[in-house]
């Protein structure tokens, strides 16, 4: 025995237990939860807005007051298969795609503006 052994206890190598690895279910739980959160916060609301916009486009008719995505407000004078003619002044008519209609305004909105 050494004098140093009396002052400092000798260190013996011990085999440490390996940390328990998370199960396969726990490893898959996080990505699945992340996808579910993204679906409910991002994808589902976007799909709902698209559905509402398609329904609005299908209901468009002659005489409806609309605003385009570019901010042009006018009254629909003609509805085609994929294009709509919008009258924006007495002698000015513009043809726009149906998808370019952003909102349908209540009747009389353009007269009061």
Q: How would you describe this protein?
A:
The chain has 113 residues and is an alpha+beta fold. It has two domains: 25-59; 61-113, Roll (SH3 type barrels), CATH 2.30.30.60. Helix content is 39%, strand content 23%. It is built from three helices and five strands, in the order H-H-E-E-E-E-E-H. The chain has helices spanning 3-7, 24-58, 109-112; strands at 65-68, 73-79, 83-87, 93-97, 101-105. The longest helix has 35 residues, at 24-58. It is rod-shaped, with a radius of gyration of 34 Å. Belongs to the YajC family. Keywords: Cell membrane, Membrane, Protein transport, Translocation, Transmembrane, Transmembrane helix, Transport. InterPro entries: Preprotein_translocase_YajC.
Task: Quickly list its features.
transmembrane helix; Preprotein_translocase_YajC; SH3 type barrels; single chain; rod-shaped; alpha+beta; 5-stranded antiparallel β-sheet; transport; 2 domains; 113 residues; 39% helix; 5 strands
């Amino acid at each position: 025995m050494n004098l140093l052994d009396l002052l400092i206890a000798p260190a013996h190598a011990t085999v440490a237990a390996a940390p328990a690895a998370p199960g396969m279910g726990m490893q898959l739980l996080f990505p699945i939860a992340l996808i579910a959160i993204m679906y409910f916060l991002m994808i589902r609301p976007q799909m709902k807005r698209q559905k509402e916009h398609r329904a609005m486009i299908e209901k468009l008719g002659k005489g409806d007051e609309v605003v385009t995505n570019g901010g042009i407000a006018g009254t629909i004078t003609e509805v085609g298969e994929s294009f709509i003619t919008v009258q924006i002044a007495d002698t000015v008519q513009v043809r726009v795609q149906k998808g370019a209609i952003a909102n349908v305004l209540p009747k009389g909105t353009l007269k009061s503006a």
